[in-house]
Amino acid sequence: MMDGDSASGKPTPSETAINHEEREKWGFSASDVVYHFGTSGISVAAATGVTHPLDVLKVRLQMQLIGQRGPLTGMGRLFVQLVKSEGPRSLYLGLTPAFMRSVLYGGLRLGLYEPSKYVCKMAFESSNVLVKIASGAFSGAIATALTNPAEVLKVRLQMNPNLRRGAIGELRRIASEEGITALWKGVGPAMTRAAALTASQLATYDESKRILMRLTLLEEGFYLHLISSTIAGTMSTLVTAPMDLIKTRLMLQRESKTVGTYKNGFHCAYQVMRTEGPRGLYKGGFAIFARLSPQTMITLILYEKLRQLAGLKAV
């Protein structure tokens, strides 16, 4: 005997839930894929546009006193020096490859997190924090491996204010003079950093949201996203600052004549600690925090909003 809803042809609540679950599990369209990766890329690109000057300062700070110990120029003083000697436009050096990288890298890094988490959940029948960390590490590493040339190009332009050939010209020069493989300089530390960044950033954000919703009155919305993204930005800065410095040094080896060639990321870390001290690994650390924390906040808040507008569920 059928109840009223079934007799009238309307699905019961339980049937609706099953259909929704099946659709979420199996059903996706081309537009879903576009929305999924598009919202990721747009979010990261917007955050990059706002925080790019801090990225330029970070790279300059990381390249101070290579192979030497000594007092470092602070971020505020470096900012004044940079604007005075190179002009305000110097704060936007490398912006074109930064945007190109943010759309591709950001779209993949955030976009692959949800599918990776889903696959891990299916494989291990769990969605605990370790699954989230593994999902973030995988998506970050893959995204960086594919987009490393844009990062190399970006940091090269950021260290060369007098470069007149532009992004395409510099790309051709690197390929012709140093070889195509030069575009993947520092890819190992870059992948390690991206894996650690995405794992610490998205897993922390994901878990922070879950805990805050359980222990407080906060619900899905701006304030929950703001607090969770602030926590995530702080955590990811602490975890990734040394990896960021190693990645920058490797990518800029040709630009630095004061130290011998680093063989790999471990050798670079050893050399920095031996010649510059343990604190050398955190050169530009405050600039990294000043950039990464607001970038994380802008990215994740905008990402959640765009997902909502696109009809996708919250992270």
UniProtKB/TrEMBL annotation:
Membrane topology: Multi-pass membrane protein
Solcar repeats: 31-119, 127-211, 220-309
Keywords in alphabetical order: Membrane, Repeat, Transmembrane, Transmembrane helix, Transport
Bilayer-spanning residue ranges: none
Keyword Protein transport among record annotations: no
Main localization category: membrane
InterPro entries: MCP_dom_sf, MCP_transmembrane, Mito_Metabolite_Transporter
GO cellular component, one term: membrane
A Pfam family the protein falls into: Mito_carr
Span list, region Disordered: 1-21
Protein family membership: Belongs to the mitochondrial carrier (TC 2.A.29) family.
Protein name as it appears in the record: Mitochondrial substrate carrier family protein like
Originating organism: Actinidia chinensis var. chinensis (Chinese soft-hair kiwi)
